[in-house]
Amino acid sequence: MQYRRLGSSGLEVSRVCLGMMSFGVTGWQPWVVEGDEGVRFVRLALDRGINFFDTADFYSHGVSEEILGRAVRELVPRDEVVIATKVGLPMRNGPNGSGLSRKHIMHAVDASLRRLQTDYIDLYQIHKWDPVTPMEETVEALGDVVRAGKARYLGVSNTAAWQLALAHCHRRHRAGTGFQSVQAQYNLTYREDERELIPFCEAVGLGVVGYSPLARGWLAGTRRTGQAGLTSREAKRAASDAKGLHLYGSPEDEAVLDQLTSVAEARGAPLAQVAMSWIHAHRAVASVIVGAMEEQHLDHAVAALELPLSAEEVVRLEQVYTPRPVKDDAMRVALGVDPPSR
Description:
Radius of gyration: 19 Å
Strand order of the largest sheet: 3-6-7-8-9-10-11-12
Structural class: alpha/beta
Helix content: 40-55%
CATH class: Alpha Beta
Number of helices: 14
Mean pLDDT: 90
CATH topology: TIM Barrel
Largest sheet: 8 strands, parallel, barrel
Oligomer: single chain
Order of helices and strands: EEEEEHEHEHEHEHEHEHHHHHEHHH
Number of domains: 1
CATH superfamily: NADP-dependent oxidoreductase domain
Strand content: 15-25%
């Protein structure tokens, strides 16, 4: 395993991060892996040198955090892992059940700590911006979370560059330090954040944590082959992942997959490894989140670190990309989960 510092901080994270959205209860999504199997995957990740685990209170409405907390408690000393979780998406209906108000943040962080069975969260992240809460209120509340010792570092996910710039500069002005990381949807079929967000992160020293590196299976080729060659869990997710079906599969995505297939075949490597190697080659990317559902998914993610691409291969992979509208990847359209009206 290889490690990098997260942004301008001293925090070292593995370049592969295990995403915990796939672990929880099937009542949340039918493809989710439950209970002991989730703990087993954390063990598999630890065995491969992964020390970075990303979850959110919204995933299975807290059960994902519970599985991660149990796994860490049973398997590894707390100081050897980096636990990241997120706040902001709906946890219940009614007033103050979602968003980034001071009230919701203060309640949510304590609830996450209980579920994670820990005294602190290494990286506490905004899941998506709250359009009705003033940014200053959110940033000040997050600062208080850090000052109270409940979180060590702060991050942002699903953000536009202008939103991040306002929040980061406000926090630096008030506290002398800003955010340390940004989670961005980043893969060969979605590169819109290369325009502004990623350059901003490079300029101010924020670490980029890429998620959906395989475009929810599209860049692994599994959507094109249908059920052929898939494990039962992979097949269940491919058939019922409304979000993935909504976000990926356009003619432009087909062209990218064709080119990826050509490069991978010439290299004699799996599509998934080549696709993730391309992300790792970007100097701003500190880590890549992998939503593993089978052991081989972790193996491909780790092997991608040892598969450097040539400049010619990078050009071939990138030249077919077509700019496109911003994808809504905050659960809203594909899953029909809207924050309660306020």
